[in-house]
Amino acid sequence: MPTLSVIIITKNEAHDIADCLESVRWADEIIVVDSGSTDSTVSICQAYTDKVTVTNWEGFGVQKNRALAMATCDWVLSIDADERVTPELKMAMQNAINTSRKTVAFSLPRLSSYCGKMIRFGDWRNDRVLRLFKRDTAHFSDSKVHESLQVSGPVESLRTPLIHYAFRDRHEVIAKMQQYSTLGAIQHFQAGKRASHSTAIWHGAWTFIRGYILRCGFLDGAAGLQLALSNAKGCYYRYAKLAMMK
Hints:
Elements: E1 4-10, H1 17-23, E2 29-34, H2 41-46, E3 52-54, H3 60-70, E4 75-78, E5 83-84, H4 87-99, E6 105-114, E7 117-118, E8 128-134, E9 138-140, E10 149-151, E11 155-157, E12 162-167, H5 170-190, H6 197-214, H7 221-243
Parallel strand pairs: 1-2, 1-4, 2-3, 6-11, 6-12
Antiparallel strand pairs: 4-8, 5-12, 6-7, 6-8, 9-10
Helix pairs in contact: 5-7, 6-7
């Protein structure tokens, strides 16, 4: 019977991490790599697993590779503190890894909420993430933000969604917007990209048009409008910060 490791990276996730860990406590192994939380995140994690490591922060990709290096099971599930594995998804994943032959990874549909409302359209429509994989066939890119999983072998898709509580309230929206736009700007700059304030305006405007109009974000009502605006602002800030870098 194949075994499963769950890997999670954290920093100040006391408001989310217990529910996340509860949803995967059935796994054979849970590994947490923390980046110096100042709240009760670490102590909460230690109540669920003895494999909790605190280390410095060098970016999302590096941190997830650190967690992956500690995994010992046949398969690995990588999730974030604001994500939940439902009983239905647990069954789907167990069936997938028990019956897989040549497949080395599975992508999962992800259903996300924005300030309490589940989003069905816009930029989050048809969201799919590659998170379940054989331990020795994949690794994460070293990106500071929006890291990707690099897989060697066939990938299949599951149909049962991973639940994602992306933003609890407007304060978290603003905080994450600032964090991700800064990390994105640094990553672009290090890759040799440059920008101006006019390109920042263009990217922000296009992000709104794409999410709210072309991808039918308006069908999610007020939450769809708020999400499209916050995505547009985040994109604008990323390129505006890039424009100021020298």
